[in-house]
Amino acid sequence: MIAAEVCSGIIRAYDAQGWHRTATTVDHASAQWLIDELHSRNVQGALETFRFTRVDPEPCSLQGDSWTIRGYPFTDSLLPAPGNPLKGRFAERPDTGAFALVRADAHGMASPVDPLREQPWAAIIAILDGPGFTLRNQWRQDEPYGPPVVQVPANAAEQLEHAQQSGEELTIHCGAVHAPTEASNVIATVTGGDPSLAPITVLTPRSGWWHCAGERGGGIAVWLEVAGEVRRLGISRTVNFVASTGHELNFWGARQHIARHPGVGPASRFWVHLGANIGARGTTLMTVSSDRGLLDIARSAGNRSGMTADAVHWEFREHAPGGEAQVIERAGGTFLSLIGANFQLFHSTEDRWPQAIDSEAIARAAILVVETLLASEPGGGSGQSAPPGRSRG
Question: Is 225 in contact with 174 (CB distance < 8 Å)?
Fold first, then answer.
């Protein structure tokens, strides 16, 4: 059975683990927790481990004469060694000791920060809009570039704009060390009854900024519950499961997985990408596919799983909407991507269990995926899944 309270419990445990930054102690412990959760569902999980260089910032701050603002650096910018603060003032043009000030958001791959990073500023201060403290994903972790960039929360804007107008001298602490370590995806396979059938792959990211209960928790809960249901139902197709780390670092774990398994993209009948904010409170589920037939199957599955017209949007799109679906598409895979749209706590310190999630919506999304897998069986499947909280007997 797939029950809302079980989904909520999964996310509660995930949230309590701490900050899910890639290759940290929390990230390693969370990977083992996922393996244990799979085991409780009679599914054998394993670590898929890669060498990784983690960027560890010193306590980051921006200081004036009588004030201090907490910050966090872009780890894909060129940061000084710890203990080497930067001193300067806000200026209109880049130069020695000249700091830039810019407002931006923490969403998407483009940002007003980006053009400034091509200029010789001493440092860039980015005020990131959003509740709490939001952070932006790092798209160039593999090849850092440009001046140091420090992110600060939206409530710092008034103080920094005053410092800009007054010409006050500022001190920035944004040093970092690069620590060689390892990072791991969690993988599992539920072998189907007919090895001649192309498998299906279900992928969800498992890392991110802060506790990310709403951003990542829904996808993780769906991933675990679908794995358990696939094992219980014993379907014909083999289903592979991947929970990738490095999401916040240009989808690092998904890219590593596909590089380690050449040809895996098109080898799957299709991929289910469990993207950001599935069942996050106040969102609409966007269900997007690069295949019209697959989208029709998913839409019918949504009707069986109790998806109302105002809770889900169905869309055919030749190109991936975002996240790891982009990696799947570049590898030649067919995708069905689930993403929650318009989550107000995206990338924020305030994205916490329970206020960030709608556990009933998460359970419905899990049943949608199970129904889609069943309908992809030879003969169209049996449609055996049940509404949230009810057993199939």
Answer: no
pLDDT of the residue at 306? 78
Are residues 193 and 160 located together in one domain of the fold? no
Enter the pTM of the model: 0.94
3-class SS at 323? coil
Torsion of CA 277, 278, 284, 286, to 10 degrees: 100
Quick one: average pLDDT of 187-199? 97
| Sign of the alpha-carbon dihedral angle for 195, 196, 197, 203 | positive
Residue 218 CA to residue 215 CA, distance in Å, equals: 7
What the block records as the tokens of 214 is 């709403």
Structural domain boundaries, residue 202: 4-55+180-380
Cα gap 229→1, rounded to integer Å: 7
What is the C-alpha separation between 271 and 337, in angstroms, rounded? Answer: 8
- 238 and 189 within one domain: yes
For the chain, the domain total comes to: 2
Choosing from 129, 158, 174, the residue where a domain stops is 174
The secondary element (H helix, E strand) that includes residue 116 is helix 113-116
Closest alpha carbon to 219 in 362, 360, 335: 362
Q: Which residue has the tokens 């106040």?
A: 282
Above 90 in pLDDT, residue 110?
Answer: no
Q: pLDDT tens, 289-330?
A: 999 999 999 999 988 877 887 889 999 998 888 899 999 999
